């Protein structure tokens, strides 16, 4: 069992030339000066994406690992940034302040803002021309993207839908006990919705009420409600017909979505690691073989799926001390795993044989815990762009060189 400990505190290396060069300002950061009530995009700085291969990027620090400077700082949220999602040419960010901001790539200007007053946003996914947002008020809101409309992102529905309510509220068997002397329809979440996942025409929602609900995208109907965990669900991801839910009860559960045409889900396996912790994030490799969970104790744990494609069990194969404080979020970009923490840092890890993680870099810059991460799927030069959102109300943009893995300095 391999334990990788954090390196000593590091000073940020200085970029010789910024990746994003502004034609109107010498700074590589973008700041919004609009007030909360002002929905119009602020005067923006336009940036030109330069050829990253021409420039010298951060070298090693004394600790042997790379550290990076942010290429841009996007400001404008009135609350802590809670989630990020890519939507075509846009990147969307949502906050505890109830607002959702749309940033246009690659110049990273604020394109529009929507969603104010609809409850603190906890989760965000995009499907085709629709955006689904999960809220603390226990509702899911559906926004439609339409360039022909003055309001580019228009609210078109709320889940559960009125049609779903009307079809079930008259039947007593459709009600469940949520707490003493309280009943709700089984299609309703009884507490804040913390996360969303999308897969194969379905939307999955996880909640602090410990349940996992399944919604059909085509008609927005709730198909199933699963009593999934003994504590709040913090993270969801779906891959290879399996839905993984990570919970504050310290477990990741794998739910089989069944055969083609069936909507019912069944418990396929339980991934367990450290005792008496909360698992705050779960991610899965593209082939579905490797599952990683980020814990409140600062560890990233890795499980290997057992079976030839159709996984029937999971074996704990790695335990990596990734951060000094809780791991709050993670994302994968090919062979790289990125982890965000309450210690305000982002760890860059190379996935190696048998699910092991090798540390290759540390990103510092946020002034508060890092709550969400989103890697851009397209390569930029010899690396990729990484977006991070934090409790400091900012989104930061980083360039992560893929060749950093070759410069690892074993210590």
UniProtKB/TrEMBL annotation:
The keyword Ligase does not apply. Transmembrane segments: none annotated. The keyword Manganese does not apply. Pfam families: WD40 (PF00400). SMART domains: WD40. Keywords: Repeat, WD repeat. InterPro entries: JINGUBANG-like (IPR045182), WD40/YVTN_repeat-like_dom_sf (IPR015943), WD40_PAC1 (IPR020472), WD40_repeat_dom_sf (IPR036322), WD40_rpt (IPR001680). PROSITE patterns: WD_REPEATS_2. It comes from the Eukaryota. WD repeats lie at residues 186-225, 363-398. This is Protein JINGUBANG. It comes from Herrania umbratica. The lineage of its organism: Eukaryota, Viridiplantae, Streptophyta, Embryophyta, Tracheophyta.
